[in-house]
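ping. complex inputs:
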Amino acid sequence: MENKLTTKKVDIYACLRCAFCYDFSKIGQYRMCPAFAGTEYESYTARGKMNLARAIVDGVVDYDEDIAKRIFACTECGACEANCLKYLDLSGVFMTMKEDLACLGIIPEGLKQAVESIIKEGNIYDKPQSERFNWLRDKSRVDGKSDTLFYVGCTPAYLRRQIARSSVTVLDKFGIDYMLTSKEMCCGHPFLAAGEIDKAKEIAEKTVTEFEKIGIKRIIFDCSGCLKMFKEDYPKLLGRDLPFDVLHISQVLTDYLREKAASFKSLPMKVTYHDPCTLGRHLEIYDDPRSIIKAIPGLELVEMPRNRKDGYCCGAGCLVKMHDNDLALKTGIERLQEAEATGAEAVISACPACQTNLLDAARQSGIQMKVMDITELLSQVL
Amino acid sequence: MKNMELKEQLVKLLGSDNVCDEMAERICYSRDCGPDKAGIPDIVVKPGNTEEIAVVIRLANKIKKPVYTWGRATTFLGSGVPQGCILLTTTRLDKILKVDLDTSTVTVQAGVIWHTIDAVLKDHNRELFIPGGGGLFSGTVGGSVAVNVIPHAITEYGMTGDHVLGLEVVLPDGTIIHTGASANPDCLPIERYSNGPDISGLFMGAYGTLGIITEITYRIRKTPELEKFAFYAFADYKKAVEAVNEIQKENAATFVIGLFAGPKPKDVEGEAFIHIIVRDSEREATYRLKQAERLCESFNGIAHDAFGTKKYWEDHMYSWLRNVAPGPYYAGAPYMCPEVAGFMPTLQLKDSLALLFQYVEDHKAEFEKYDILIKGFDTYFTRNGVYLWIDTLYNEMKEDSWKYGLKLRGELCDLMYGKGKMAAGGLGAGVAPYAMPKLGNTFTFLKQLKKTMDPNNVLNPGVLFLGD
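pong. complex structure:
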């Protein structure tokens, strides 16, 4: 099998091995790469993976389970690429390695199951598609008439249902018109995570065609992972721009708050905000969730040392949680410890995957902190 | 001892999480940032403390297997990882052990990243005596001290090793010692030259060949009140050198950086360029900078906006020296640097640059044929001289370019360590064979010392060319 990695030779050979992808040393004693922090082995860093890529293109080693373990341990938090001295397309190289591994059938079991589940049931949790809207009490907006779609996502629909409920509560309260679609299925990100590019392309095409057919002009997301898939990955997969706007719910709500006054109940509490890697570093949406927090009377926002573009991953990205929960939890606990050190009572985020892993991390570690989604926070004070 | 048996022994000593013999791991601990290929270790170990390092060294001596100590491997001069060695990474030695504001010291483990310490000290309005360290800012303290890296602000603050007060070191036989101010465990570290002969110096610049540095006690100080910046262009590089010589004599600057070849700074005309940084009290900084500016202007220097100087000092990104943001400067090019570097008196730089310019002219056709570029003949001016980097670039994707780059490095070493009368600063496996034999009796003595201290040649063998 001719590997696709040879197409990335320039970037691979350009890696200086400068180790800028290891630590946030200018902030303090903080690692940058969650896989490196969890294992303390160089092969898990971007530099390490580039070394492996070089060894593969040079014919020194071949793809195998050991290499796969390292490639799939990456949450694609993007910190390495954001800090790369040579501005290399690191995510492109690692994605290509995933593609090659997928062609060889060397992907972790947890990811294989997620892929099969999407093919069978249209979601990653192997639950019936028919249950996708079980969380929703009033189903009148399902297949309703609006050019704005609220895209729920698999995790809020099946696992973090409070996020889905809080999102519609807030949208309804603010009088924002939207519909939901019974045709909603997985955005396809797990296919990318597993290196299954063709499957990702297929689902992207199907989804965009369907939404275009029903006249959608704008999509609101409560999941930043799904948003990133639509906004960044779909155009690359399809080779064309999307025929609709895509926004995170925090952006929609911030726009609303800018134009209209809203009164909230007071909530005296110290909170910190965890930037999801997808919403933050990838899509550069840092201020909207923070504006919402600051608009709530009584709330005091304290920042963690690693914040905004230097935010640290929760550990769940790229479905690492599904095949290496130990590593995901290690990262989540480290992030929760950082949140706890701020003195905050709660950590707010804007991603259901972040919330899932941070909640699990709290249970595992015994750290007494509330973990809330921005929509849950807002629905509490309306 | 067979590899399986070695692994079992190491797992018993360090735990299974801290020992790995998978090829996918081992292959990542070979090459540094430079052009030299290196060996692949047989096994990678991550000891968590000094005692664990000592037991690994004792085992290595028993089975006569080399050990290579690895921080972040951000040198440019050849890692020298021996094929089949035990690769010992200091990644888990990452604790800042003590910050003592009364004695103005900090004690850290070897695996701590230099910049991390400054970030922690900032909360106390303090900084390391060499803030920001030297080399790539991703380097460890242990590595920086072991190679005695050329640091930022060397013009006023001196060398990395100057401010080491004491070390903890694992000797080649596994004995743990403390040196200098740290040698007496009942006393707080004060001055380096206490407790007898200065053994600390033996391990600084030794590239891990005589002992593994595991802890460092370093001086800290209050962050200066003010920083001021200036940037000058000179139509004649000799005038630039003369101007800086006067600045050094007047102690008018904390840090002076010179650019004498390579891409010119954006939107600035000239043949040579000088960046000046002054850090002091408000009164002194203002006075000293005025002195430096007057001296530059007396040698026909033209002042320009110093935004690049300030940015370079703040984030240590090299592109700012040429007034360019990091992205456009570095992006994607597969070029690597066969660096040659060293010290000389400031005024000698004029002749050395003339030699280099002539060399480049004489080899113009070959440079073009083999895709060789000039990154820069850049300098950090020291307290009483200059450290010159002769940075050429070869194309990593072309084997003949790589081979020529290595040959070029050899020729430049011969030229600069010979006629150029340059004293080697940066060493490493790639350059040591050219530099070390120049030391005559000292080289013979160092080889004898290595043999005596490390009869089994266990620690970083070959890295400083001290073998038989």
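Chain B has four domains: 3-89, 96-222, 226-329, 335-439.
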